[in-house]
Design a protein that fits this description.
Structural class: alpha+beta
Oligomer: single chain
Number of helices: 1
Largest sheet: 5 strands, antiparallel
Strand order of the largest sheet: 4-3-2-1-5
Strand content: 25-35%
Number of strands: 5
């Protein structure tokens, strides 16, 4: 691979990743016709994303995402 080409990250369905274009974090899913989608952690929102725009979360970001989900679930429980 030429040094000026960006390597595509290893993407696993179900993993939590950051969309570098939007800054949003979501769970990786497959969309129609093999597209890649991210589904929001605390809502039903989803968006298509180019796999080269995904990156793994840092340890701090993973912790922050878990806290955000826990807070959302606490607020939404009856």
């Amino acid at each position: 691979m030429a040094s000026n080409q960006q390597a595509e990250p290893r993407i696993e369905i179900g993993s939590v990743m950051r969309d570098t274009q939007t800054g949003r974090v979501g769970v990786v899913r497959r969309g129609p016709e093999g597209t890649t989608r991210l589904h929001g952690l605390s809502d039903d929102d989803y968006w298509e994303v180019d796999p080269v725009d995904l990156r793994e979360l840092t340890q701090t970001e993973r912790l922050s995402a878990r806290v955000a989900v826990a807070n959302y679930e606490t607020r939404c429980r009856p």
